[in-house]
Amino acid sequence: MFSFFKKKPVTPDAATPAPVPVPAPALPPALSPVSSPAFDPAAGHPPAEPLSFEMETAPRLAAKQSWMSRLKAGLSKTSANLSVLFVGARIDDDLYDELEGALLMADAGIDATQYLLDALKRRVKDDKLLDAAAVKVALKELMIDLLRPLEKGFELGRHQPTVMMISGVNGAGKTTTIGKLAKHMQAHGQSVLLAAGDTFRAAAREQLMVWGQRNDVTVVSQASCDPAAVSYDAVQSGKAKGTNVVMIDTAGRLPTQLHLMAELQKIQRVIGKGMDGAPHETLLVIDGNTGQNALAQVKAFDDALGLTGLIITKLDGTAKGGVLAAIARVRPVPVYFIGIGEQIEDLQPFDATEFVEALLG
Ligand SMILES: Nc1nc2c(ncn2[C@@H]2O[C@H](COP(=O)(O)OP(=O)(O)OP(=O)(O)O)[C@@H](O)[C@H]2O)c(=O)[nH]1
């Protein structure tokens, strides 16, 4: 789910007297701290970085299978529309025309659709593919290649606290996602503080407060206050308490509401005054059912804020999924997580291979 940044051992600076060298015990290369892929307490060497906490245990595998089947169910409409094209089909212009239509219907947009079709035609010619099943496999591979640059592990521990600002249009799933992320982080031993930066809607503030009480997470909140001030206070509080992660919720807004976009920029600036380099993550939450408009949202929020990552929610609804191809082609902001429901385990890291598997079956 997350990887954790581990500080390298501090190297003495020039002013510090050099310690008397002690010959290091010779280690075989496989045990060398630098080349070690993970921390092994028995071996007594420090971890390489970043350190992944994922383990393929039996319950984890079962959870993975359940996640995949629900992701497949969510994207089943697109998957059915694409897969049917390859059943007993001849590889001719009709197939490419139908594929073009299906990709556009799946919200892939003109650019990504044209790119995939051109690449597929080249692949069919170069590899002399003769049957439709092989063409489908080639399309899958091309889609994975297209989406893979969007994969990025979410890293914690590089800053104390790691400050995250979460934005998005109304109802995209920001608050729900913050709740799920907070629970995942707590499960990984991280202390979390939330800021109710949605100071417009009393209900939104209360939603976060109630959630915080239930889950033992401190929530910084002030009624009718400047959201930038609440965010600043949260960062100060996080620094003072030594909290690992501060997540700042913001009120939903449309990118066309320019004064509200300017307000987001102000929140971001003020967070930076509270801590140098913060926010370390500026995230946009997107409702996966928004279709091609999602791309417009990514562009507008990225232009205004310089996004570091995306979270795509509600891929369990009527989402078609192709918009990720459009994002990959036109504005490749990393997709940290995707969501397929309201439970905590319904939010998982984005994995291009899994996603395409769900999309193309
Ligand atoms: N089916 C489904 N519903 C979701 C998902 N994520 C969030 N929701 C629901 O979407 C609705 C809106 O979620 P919120 O978290 O309140 O959205 P928000 O972006 O904070 O909303 P505003 O504060 O009004 O801008 C809620 O009913 C959530 O339960 C998801 O992945 N799948």
UniProtKB/TrEMBL annotation:
GO molecular function: GTP binding; GTPase activity; signal recognition particle binding
One CC-aspect GO term: plasma membrane
Coiled coil residues, start to end: none
Source superkingdom: Bacteria
Keyword Cell inner membrane listed: no
Classification via InterPro entries: AAA+_ATPase, P-loop_NTPase, Signal_recog_particl_SRP54_hlx, SR_rcpt_FtsY, SRP/SRP_N, SRP54_GTPase_dom, SRP54_N_sf
Compartments, record wording: Cell membrane; Cytoplasm
The keyword Hydrolase is annotated on this UniProt entry: yes
Enzyme Commission code(s) on record: 3.6.5.4
Topological relation to the membrane, as annotated: Peripheral membrane protein
Primary location class: membrane
Keywords on record: Cell membrane, Cytoplasm, GTP-binding, Hydrolase, Membrane, Nucleotide-binding, Receptor
GO biological process, one term: SRP-dependent cotranslational protein targeting to membrane
Subunit structure and binding partners: Part of the signal recognition particle protein translocation system, which is composed of SRP and FtsY. SRP is a ribonucleoprotein composed of Ffh and a 4.5S RNA molecule.
Protein name: Signal recognition particle receptor FtsY
The organism of origin for this protein: Pseudoduganella lurida
Taxonomic classification: Bacteria, Pseudomonadati, Pseudomonadota, Betaproteobacteria, Burkholderiales
Gene (name only): ftsY
